[in-house]
Design a protein that fits this description.
elongated, alpha+beta, single chain, 422 residues, eight-stranded antiparallel β-sheet, 19 strands
Length: 422
């Protein structure tokens, strides 16, 4: 268009070329064309802006920036398994300390350290020479007592015949009977001495009192041991099953009892026993898992102490766990997960939705759905905010177990609480 305008102007200028110079006419014509072009572009830009503003204002919806928006969750009852995580120590099912019962010198050690042993297996051999001599002496004394008793019996028999014929005095008869009784008592004493000597001789072979796995030997061949000494020679432990000893605060036990009283028949159904988390954080489970699921080795809670420790205010508990792989060793630290019970209709609320007021009481903000009418069916629903005080029991993951204050179906605000005003 500018070029056409310029051409038009040049053709018109040729008609008046006789009155002015050619160069001046062409310059003035081009200047006039540029002025008209600038006014045209200015009007075109203003018209375009007006159209854009008109298109933006044709939308009849009102802006929503003034209405606060929040995220919420609906509270629904669900099944909750209550668990407590307690620290514990592994203890052997049976612990037997091997000690000598007679004095002597160790001649042999007849076991391999760290291997299983059976009850009655000989572990150490003490030099038996002195005890064999004592046994032989006791045996000789018994034989002597038997011979003496036989002689006294014959003497008593003869004295009895003479006493019937009044050939001996009553005093002689009584002495004869007494001597025969002493001979019998001497036999009994000699038998007891022989039995003691044989027992001591048997004690020279130190045997395993129980079956289990034996640890290291505290003495070597040639060492002198004494009867019932303080330090054991070795320790035997049974670890095919192990105890796990735990402590729980008295306050937790009182809370559990109150929960059991509050939930009634629904409490405790479906519990599967105690489980272990090892010191490295891995679950105590079977080596093989089916379909990717952890096959826990579960234990049984045996008992809890009937008294509270005054120094710590805690109660001791004990659980029994199987140990088929021998993974649990005495003295090992572990965490015990005890399933305290099951709540069938538990109400859980996200922790980020719970706030505390100045007095330390907890509350949540809930949404109250408005009553829609026929005239407001097409309008946006605006919820009202209500503050509700809640009583919490314990955390469960990233949620709180609500004891009271909420009901099933309540809509709780979880995000945007700063914008929500009751």
């Amino acid at each position: 268009t500018p070029y056409l305008m310029v051409t038009d102007t040049i053709m018109n200028s040729k008609q008046i070329a006789h009155s002015k110079p050619q160069e001046e006419i062409m310059f003035r014509s081009i200047t006039a064309s540029r002025s008209r072009y600038s006014r045209f572009m200015t009007r075109f830009a203003a018209l375009l802006c007006l159209c854009l503003l008109q298109a933006g204002c044709n939308d009849g919806s009102a802006p929503m920036g003034e209405t606060p928006q929040v995220r919420y969750t609906a509270i629904a009852p669900e099944r909750l398994v209550l668990t407590s995580e307690l620290p514990g120590r592994v203890a052997a099912l049976v612990t037997a300390e091997v000690r000598p019962q007679v004095d002597g010198i160790i001649q042999q050690r007849l076991f391999e350290e760290g291997t299983p042993v059976t009850k009655g297996q000989t572990l150490y051999q003490i030099d038996p020479a002195a005890y064999e001599a004592a046994r032989n002496t006791a045996k000789a004394e018994l034989e002597e007592a038997l011979v003496h008793a036989a002689a006294q019996q014959k003497r008593e028999t003869r004295a009895r015949v003479l006493a019937k014929a009044n050939a001996v005095s009553q005093q002689e008869w009584d002495d004869t009977v007494a001597e025969h009784g002493k001979a019998k008592a001497r036999i009994a004493r000699a038998k007891a001495a022989l039995e003691t000597a044989e027992i001591n001789l048997n004690y020279t072979s130190i045997k395993a009192p129980v079956s289990g796995r034996i640890g290291r030997s505290a003495i070597t061949q040639g060492a002198l041991v004494t009867a019932n000494q303080t330090n054991p020679l070795a320790v035997i432990q049974q670890i095919d099953q192990v105890y796990v000893d735990m402590t729980q605060s008295n306050a937790s036990i009182l809370r559990l009892r109150r929960l059991a009283a509050a939930f009634g028949p629904a409490w405790g159904k479906g519990t599967t026993g105690a489980r272990l988390i090892l010191e490295d954080g891995t679950p105590y489970a079977a080596p093989g898992s089916e379909h990717g699921e952890t096959q826990w080795h579960t234990g049984d809670l045996l008992f809890a102490e009937i008294s509270v420790a005054q120094a710590t205010g805690s109660v001791n508990l004990r659980a029994l766990f199987p140990n088929p792989e021998g993974l649990l060793l005495p003295g090992m630290y572990a965490r015990v997960l005890i399933e305290e019970g099951v709540i069938e209709n538990a109400l859980l609320v996200p922790q980020r939705a719970v706030m505390a007021d100045g007095s330390g009481r907890h509350f949540v903000l809930t949404l109250q759905e408005p009553q829609t009418s026929a005239t407001a069916q097409n309008a946006a629903l605006l919820f009202t905010v209500q503050k509700k005080s809640v009583e919490l029991d314990r955390p469960s993951g990233n949620r709180w177990l609500v004891r009271s204050g909420l009901e099933a179906g309540d809509i709780v605000i979880v995000e945007g609480v700063q914008k929500a005003i009751p």
